Amino acid sequence: MGRHLAPTRSRAVLIGVAEYTHPEVPEIPAATTNIEDLAQALTAPEGGAFGPEDCISIANPNDSARVGEVIGRAAREATDVLLVYYAGHGMVDQYGRLHLALTSSDPRNLRWTSVPFAMLREEILETSARARILILDCCFSGRAFEAMSNGPGLVAGQVQIRGTYTVTSTTANETSYAPVGHRNTAFTASLLTVADETPGLTLDELYYRTDQLLRASGYPNPQRRSIDLAGELRLFGRTDDESRYRRAADNGDDDAMTVLGALLMEQGKSDEAEIWFRRAADEGHIYAMTVLGNLLMERDEPGEAEIRYRQAAHDGATDVMTVLGWLLHTRGEPGEAETWWRRAADNGDTDAMTFLGFLLEKQGEHREAETWFRRAADNSDIYAMAILGNLLMERDEPGDAEIWYRRAAEKADTFSMFNLGVLLEGQKKFVEAEIWYRRAAENGDPDSMFNLGSLLEGRKESGEAEVWYRRAAECGHIFSMFNLGVVLEGRGEPGEAEVWYRRAAECGHTFSMFNLQVVLERRGEHGEAQTWLHYLAQGVLKQVDDNYRNPNSSSPTD
Q1: What are the C-alpha distances in Å from 313 to residues 284, 340, 343?
Q2: Model pTM?
């Protein structure tokens, strides 16, 4: 934890766009000075995280291909850390998708004149770097969170991308600030000020102090999400001067105590590190409380972790409120969990909004649950969009459901791609349904593979249908096993067809039991054929009996 980066294995790409050719897009002079000052800090000989040759600045780019080439190369070369920073205009298209503006960007033609954030996301995801850091200083930058995750984090607002740290200057719907005449934008100026005043801060510490400075100046609050220990990395300043922090910590500086704790964790001295985290937490240091709570959770001491989380939550740490709510909920205390999730949701925490919606839905408070799902969805939470689509479908409002499924699907949510495909197929819009099934199938969703195979088979394209049935069957999809068996048997390959019928039959699929016993009878294996016929009869009788006892239950579908 708290380790300094290895310059030869890390890469940074800094993009600043100050000049714009479109008459409706104002210039941001500070954007290019942002990357100049940031590059100087990142490559400083007294402790910058990157070597000068490993930190590439792109000022006023006009070609998205050029930007993609530089980022792609950095992503391929980085094995320790990949950092991407952008300062300029964030623009949103008609579907709510974030685009990073270039000098020639046209607000009415963003797709071809800017860098869609989805493309940047793919490069970040595909790198083999141990950690990825993304910093966006632009309007609507909070929308990056929706594309960096396929669901809400379960602990501490984590996104489901390993080793990723994302910082944005605003929320999903706020503008960013570049004060006239200032050398830097408000967010980057605060970040650089904090880095200069207190060298050696971890990313989390840097974020919290930057947040405090921006709040004090009346600017929008930055946002951040982290997974694994990416928040313990350091980008600026020396981190090996332990004695300096120890002296300050001994003199009661709780910030120094926290930094010292991180340094000691880096050295493997976890016991002493915990002592300093405890001292800082006892002094009221919110970040130390949070780190200590995380350490205790890792050590399976949820009781004391809860105490520390409560301290931080009571002191106003919104993301810790969400974590505390989750801890209480898993312990079977939904009432108090709801209290903390409400506080965090009222403070703008999207994960808390989604968790609160689930809790209220479970309690039968459907309307209020929908309100919170809508708020989270409006804050660009993909999972909330998907759930909202489901709620609307259950209410037989397919038109509104399609809107939310489409928004989530366009932001790479696989389940929404599938649900949108089902909805479109039900409307007989087979061409577009196939498009979404394909996208979800290529993302590994077995249900979409099966539905895509069914569409193709209906079009007499049995060859490609077999490919998708096979992929889904190999993922354990029972209906695909059966359909694959039918395709193989129809092609005169009863041997392999029997393999798949058997696998599906062993999972309880009644049609597969029937086809399997037919194959066995043809081969003269009457004994085993009768066994499967018996299982089939028992299964059917059980279904009839269950439906007789519970006439409101829905019959299983094969």
Answers
A1: 11, 8, 9
A2: 0.55
